Here is the input.
Amino acid sequence: MDLIKDYSSNVTKGRLAETLALLSLAVVLVAFVPVWYLFAAAVKGLYILVVAFLAVVLIIFTLGTILLNEEFKQFFQTIGNNSFLVGFRDFALKIDAVMIYLLAAAVLLAAAAAFIGWKNQDKKGKKGKYIALTIGGILILYSVLYFIFRAQIFAEVII
Amino acid sequence: MTKITINKPDIAAVYLDGKLINFKKVNECYTAESDVAGDFNLRIVRIPETLFKNWFLRALVFWIISVAGIFTPWYDGKGAVLNYEMFGSAGENCEINLNLLKVKSKVAFKQAVYVDAKDINVYSESGAAYQKDKTAVRRKRLYTAFSWLMRIVLSVLVIVFAVI
Here is the structure.
């Protein structure tokens, strides 16, 4: 039946939109690991670090093995030798090196989610669209603030 | 011109003469307009994804894309199917107010669709309640079992490769 085919296509597209949006969110969380480290180090609270670590441990397991195979191994080795915070710092520094690529991937995923979910009638499609647009908005704001601060620092150094 | 309003457009898909209706929020109310006149067919459809054609293949693809099924919405575990159909004849100033109940509602399996129509002659209507589909429930359980098993296998493999 055409109606059922249309319905299943709509629902599947909706699921795809929300999946891509959630993936984008996960990539953003991983990309901001260095920021989490700075935050945790600033407040000297290990609890925040533990909660943050538990939240992304599964993502890191997967992305770490795909993107940072060697670094991932070293990260685990550092936990055994040094304190937890130091190990996390090392890992954060390594993530920092690929942060721009992770953010670019997150933007692409969010754009794909927004595109698929734009005219989708399903609940999941609409949800995916809103998540993607929120991520996009936050990243644009972050980029603007980042360049303002960089420009300020640059100006101070030059002057 | 036929005016259709609905309490919640996310519960099920509404088709008028085979065309999916796009509801827009106007003053706290979801409304759509259609130029249908004369005899029409209204259908309200909600089918769990586990009843779709090639459901396992679709679920497997999403399981892979969403990193072991973590970043994808959950599948419906209640297996509630809604297939409401109404045949009728619409007048010039026809209005259809649809009130749908969620699956969570206690009486949804007795009656889930309430239609308040003006300037309409209803010939027949059927399927106003959710029907529990055992196949959908069984498939959802199968998917959950498969998903957790594969996650355990994947975790073991990742740990082994990370340590070696």
